[in-house]
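Action item from last week, closing it out:
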Amino acid sequence: MGLYEGNGETSGYNCAQVNALRDVINSTAQNAANSIVEKLHSGIVKPMSSIWYAPEAVEFFQSFATVVQSTGQSITEAFDAFRDFVQQAGAHWAENTKGEVPNLPAIDLVELNLNVSEIQPNNAGNVTINEGEATSLASNLGQVEEEIEAELKSLAENLSADSAFIGHSQAASLKDCFVKVSGAVESIFKFLTEGDESLQTAINKTVEKYQSVSEEVSNSASNVSIEK
């Protein structure tokens, strides 16, 4: 084998293309936020708006929206950590080739503004919860989680780094890493179904409370003794 013979692989990087990945990562993060909010609204808020009517329902979902909004910082940090990794990978190439050092500005803050205005304090004066439909919705929250996970994975798989990191499966490895980042983002929403403070548990406890109050009123009425 001659001195310059090899397997024919071309390897390297393209600084401008590495820099361009910043906008791809940023847009993916923003699209992820939009998708998450849409799925939480369509899968939880909208159906619940015709199931539960109460002042406490309004308060509950306003608090839920605040919890969702608070995840924006964690999501921002997750995607920005990947952006930093890409920048460092490009810097490593620059160091070893005396090439141009990439510069990828931090991604924009990810904001999750969930609209819960459809939740109403009463329905023509009735303060109620449909127990069966509420329980059914609670049991299906895992499906909402799965939809979020699938959408995030789909968005992450759109990352193409072939023109930025050339050769030796660099681009494929970066895409796999990005998919893992999206998986980490999805795990943030385990509060929908996991733990004593999960949304699923809260809904089921609310149904139990309304059942209990109904039974208390019924039993009290049955035991009333009216003197003649």
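Closing note: The first strand starts at residue 12 and ends at 13.
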